[in-house]
Design a protein that fits this description.
Helix content is 33%, strand content 16%. It is α/β, with parallel strands linked by helices and 335 residues long. The protein is globular. Bound molecules: (4S)-2,6-dioxohexahydropyrimidine-4-carboxylic acid and zinc ion.
Amino acid sequence: MDITLESPLDMHLHLREGDMLDLTVPLSADHFAGAVIMPNLVVPVDSLDYLLNYRQAIEFYCTGKNFRPYMTLFFKNYSRQELEESREQILGIKLYPAGITTQSEAGVSDFSAIEETLSLMQELKIPLLVHGETNGFVLDRESEFLDVYRSLANRFSELHIIMEHITTADAVELLDEFANLSATVTLHHLMITLDDVLGDLLRPDLFCKPVAKTPRDRSALREAVFGGHPQIMFGSDSAPHPRHKKECIGCAAGVFSAPVALPLLAQIFEDAGCLDRLQDFISTNACRRYRITPSEKTVVLSPTAWQVPDYYGDVSPFFAGQTIRWSVNSTISAK
Ligand code: DOR
Ligand code: ZN
């Protein structure tokens, strides 16, 4: 029996820039109806002109594939005019604490200095996407950041705040406290724990931010996702880095999961006996939470096993060399 998914969406995706787009864009556009594009380029995407140029560069590589890049601006203090001009062109604004992850040096270092922009975003109904980590001990960073989410969600109760790539049981619990909080969950955080990253030989391909956590945390994520939590959406956080940036001293953070995301999600939802919940996780929840209507694109997965290649271009994917039971068979777009 095939699996049919309507307009699958990846609500957190790094496509990079320049030549890398030739590799990354078609891989996502072949499987998804749209994706939320992260703005942490070498120079952060922090103006409308820059964002429109970046979108055009992406669109060049997905012509005819019925794939919509939902663009995000890199958070800084924006004026009312800038936000009003941008709002129709963006899905939201992505906030990085300064220096917390790849290319986030220009992020926020003083959370007390961003109130005005947040009020404007609330007023203009522009969602706030957040990389929620402190610079504390690596395993505690997400839990320590939850107080920031609490405070933001309380003070800006009409602002839609998305806790990106949550990895902990604590973060899952926080969703119950605030109706204006949503979360994305990645494929890899549903599958691995810190043991997979460094319990045996060190695995640069599995090193990412936030780092994978404990078995208890992973169980909480699985329970929430497989249980159909209505505030949780799929966001791959697929983040490609070329081999020389992974296999070196100072390994870059990021798991490149885009090419395997749909087939592996099918596999783990099937293993959990909840394939009927995949549509909500992969699209319906995001459409409801963000109030978006993606274009119609039906993706059919068939139970045909395939072996994941060791590399796509110069980038090693998640699950490289391993076999996945499901493959994307066809996509049909509405005329
Ligand atoms: O692992 C990660 N890689 N986490 C992030 O937050 C950023 C991303 C990247 O841009 O490589
Ligand atoms: Zn990311």
